[in-house]
Specification:
heterodimer, A: MetI-like fold, two-stranded antiparallel sheet, 2% strand, flat, disordered N terminus, B: alpha/beta, D-Maltodextrin-Binding Protein, domain 2, 2 domains, 9-stranded mixed β-sheet, 17 helices, 11 strands, 14% strand, globular
């Protein structure tokens, strides 16, 4: 404490002799300029080591021939990209990824929005329902996927058992007899685990809307739909945008659901880009092809993120 | 001012600690203790002085053993201890790695020049193609070479050189739950595909959906085994009589179509595309599946199923069983983690390791422990009558003499995958994809023709260098 109170006195006295103390104030200024960077340095080093270097390595490997034993043989004239782009499995996988992202993000946003509207109302047991809604989000994706795999299993799944005990079916149904059926179930699980995140994002937006907006709208004779489109949606848009953009990135890159339920089978018909590149790398031992698929996925996401950035920057400019 | 100095010091410390972390991992990479990834399932049992701190020129030997069961990690520490007591100039490190992680771990180690000296895995052709292995003649003693059953020794030959040693084998057979079959009115295990169909129909009619008549695995885990079971027993297979790839033969097309009828008729588990052999084995052991083709050691000790082991059914009357053999191979010192200065001393230590491992009693004990079949003639003879002097892993149960007597007789006549061929991995994955496409409704001939074309193209590329 004594030193703290003494310090200003020393500064004042030193300020009285500027010529003598000029170098020290210059040093102080340099230090002040450098200090933020020093504080940032650990994060920058960490990001470089954990993010930038792996990304650059994947870009490099995607243009290399790599043996199955993992030996890098050298530049192969982008043969990995040519092979990947010529593969019908890759094209099907790309289509699946689009369907997977659009369906999971779209449907979960719709359900999440409705659920958030309901949870924003006052009713008994609201806290309990809110806790229940967040449950799927709080549970690990792999555990959820495994549970759903068991639920829909035709041989011993609980869905068949329940339906047959209720007398709704007289024999067990194979819910995943085709690749399309497998993929539809995977989309459903994706929706199921994504809904809570959207719900709580939208709910936080809804709770920030002042009741006076609704009161004013009602006084102007607005009904439910009018209030929804003219008050709720515009005001909740920032929350919805955040949840949608984050969901697009999460869902696009989601691995556990598809891999746990089908591993991309039957006949590689249920892959998304992430499971496909995992299979290429760790099952087929084709690291070069996997790196090429990874780069393509990265570019697609980078384009999506850029569009979002441009749009949000535009929105900010218009707002200001 | 003090605050700033403190802040600067803190920042410097953070940077230094980060740098230190990096330095440590870099240091490890040059260290002989291995463990560059966190994927391994077991630490070496021996103490901390993994380096030659004792002053003598200890030879470092790193070994990766694949995990064959829940108890693999219980057997090797004793082996390691006994070996190091016998050869105090060799520092042996045995790592047990799960099959799920094995390929990733090995590839990571190879690409960072941290490969083990000895690796236990199933195939070796890719390593030979990259010039990473030491020929078996360079380390296998004459005594050991004489002990290994010739067909297993020769199965590791590629371009006239033997590159690996067989570690163990298993063979596949058809397992039938005789109580379920009897209830369905079937008194004997089926021997032909027609009889399989009849038995499946009887089980399905009797039990409805509660019992699966036939366990089928055409998943990416081991779908190539299903391809082998049905094509070999129909006179087809992976290669023709001249050893050329013959994936699109008429017999193979017929076999693939037969698998599809099993699925279409509702005789199999609902998801053969994703069900691996493990849930099928569990279902059979639990008595909820009537028949399946599985490994000789698939029955669990506590299963109460009244089962019979039979030959694989064949529509042409000549049953072929499938053998599976895994290998031990030695990596070139240029890419191993153990930077031994004396290559001759390293190969001598490798040779000692193998002689110690394949010692009749020790090797027989390991075979009983894991439930696999021996690939040496002396252990095969011993286990036919003396398996009961050893205990099964994870239990106090003695080995079953009858089991070894039965399967060691069958084993030499088994067919094996052509896994020493450079194209094998692509063939393996190709037939699995083909099976799945055919069972999903694509034309078998078209799909297999496409695969054959792809493999021939690959072979031509490989031969062109």
């Amino acid at each position: 404490m004594k030193q703290n109170t003494g310090a200003p006195v020393k500064d004042v006295s030193s300020g009285a002799v500027p010529a003598k103390n000029a170098p020290s104030s210059g040093g102080k200024q340099t230090l002040r300029k450098v200090e933020p960077y020093l504080w940032l340095l650990p994060s920058i080093v960490l990001m470089a080591v954990m993010i930038v270097i792996p990304i650059l390595t994947v870009f490099r490997l995607s243009a290399m021939e790599i043996s199955r034993a993992g030996i890098v043989k050298g530049f192969n004239n982008f043969a990995n990209y040519k092979e990947v782009l010529a593969s019908p499995i890759f094209r099907h996988t790309l289509w699946n990824t689009l369907v997977w992202t659009v369906v999971v993000v779209g449907v979960s946003t719709l359900i999440g929005f409705v659920l958030a509207m309901v949870l924003n109302q006052n009713f008994r047991g609201r806290k309990l329902v809110r806790a229940l809604v967040i449950f799927p989000w709080a549970t690990s994706l792999i555990i959820q996927a495994v549970i759903w795999k068991y639920i829909i299993s035709a041989d011993y799944g609980s869905l068949n058992v329940i339906l047959s005990k209720l007398g709704l079916i007289d024999h067990f149904i194979n819910w995943t007899s085709t690749a399309g059926a497998f993929f539809a179930w995977e989309c459903w699980v994706g929706i199921f685990v994504t809904v809570p995140f959207v719900t709580f994002c939208v709910l936080s937006g809804l709770q920030s809307i002042d009741d006076t907006f609704y009161e004013a709208a009602e006084m102007d004779g607005a009904g439910f739909w009018r209030k929804l489109f003219s008050v709720t949606l515009p005001l909740v848009r920032p929350s919805l945008t955040v949840s949608t953009v984050l969901n697009i990135i999460y869902v696009f890159n989601s691995f556990p659901i598809v891999w746990t339920i089908s591993k991309g089978d039957p006949a590689d018909k249920t892959h998304t880009l992430v499971t496909y590149l995992y299979k290429l790398s760790f099952t087929s031992g084709k690291s070069g092809l996997a790196a090429a698929v990874s780069v393509i996925g990265f570019v697609i996401l980078a384009i999506c993120a850029s569009i979002y950035m441009i749009m949000s920057l535009k929105g900010e400019e218009e707002g200001s | 001012m003090m605050k700033r100095i403190l802040a600067m010091m803190l920042a410097a410390m953070l940077v230094l600690s980060l740098a230190a972390c990096g330095g440590n991992s870099g240091g490890n990479s040059g260290d002989s203790s291995g463990g560059t990834t966190g994927d391994t399932t077991q630490e070496p049992a021996t103490g901390g002085d993994s380096d030659s701190s004792g002053g003598g020129e200890k030879v470092q030997l790193n070994v990766i053993i694949s995990q064959y069961g829940n108890n693999t990690q219980d057997w090797w520490p004793t082996f390691e201890k006994d070996f190091e007591e016998t050869y105090d100039n060799i520092d042996l490190t045995v790592e047990i790695v799960s099959w799920n992680d094995l390929y990733t771990v090995v590839n990571t180690r190879i690409s960072t020049a941290q490969a083990p000296d000895i690796l236990n895995i199933d195939t070796f052709a890719d390593y030979v193609a990259d010039d990473l292995l030491v020929p078996a003649e360079d380390y296998a003693s004459a005594d050991l070479k004489n002990k290994i059953i010739p067909s297993f020794w020769n199965a590791n030959e590629l371009d006239g050189t033997v590159w690996a040693l067989p570690i163990l084998a298993s063979c596949r057979a058809m397992f039938c739950n005789m109580d379920l079959l009897a209830e369905a009115g079937i008194t004997a295990a089926p021997t032909t595909w027609e009889e399989v169909d009849a038995a499946c129909k009887a089980v399905k009619d009797k039990f409805g959906g509660s019992i699966v008549p036939w366990g089928l695995d055409i998943s990416t885990d081991e779908g190539q085994a299903a391809f082998a079971y049905y094509t070999w027993n129909n006179g087809g297979g992976f290669v023709d009589a001249d050893g050329n790839w013959a994936l699109n033969s008429a017999a193979n097309v017929e076999a693939m179509n037969y698998i599809k009828t099993l699925i279409d008729n509702g005789y199999c588990n609902a998801n053969p595309y994703t069900d691996t052999r493990y849930p099928l084995q569990d279902a059979f052991n639990a008595g909820s599946q009537a028949m399946m083709i599985g490994a000789c050691n698939m029955m669990s000790a506590d299963s109460e199923v009244n089962y019979e082991v039979a030959n694989l059914p064949s529509p042409i009357g000549s049953s072929v069983s499938m053998g599976v053999c895994d290998r031990l191979m030695v990596f070139d010192s240029s890419i191993t983690a153990s930077k031994n200065s004396d290559e001759a001393a390293r190969l001598d230590a490798v040779s000692k390791f193998f002689d110690f491992f394949y010692d009749t009693n020790r090797y027989s004990e390991y075979m009983v422990f894991e439930g696999f079949l021996p690939v040496t003639s002396d252990s095969s003879e011993l286990l036919k009558t003396g398996a009961d002097q050893f205990t099964v892993g994870g239990s106090d149960a003695p080995g079953d003499n009858d089991y070894f007597a039965t399967f060691t007789e069958i084993l030499p006549n088994c067919e094996f995958y052509p896994s020493s061929r450079a194209e094998w991995i692509d063939v393996k994955q190709g037939v699995i994809e083909a099976e799945q496409r055919i069972c999903q409704g694509e034309d078998a001939q078209t799909v297999l023709d496409e695969l054959q074309g792809k493999i021939e193209e690959l072979q031509a590329r490989n031969e062109a260098g």
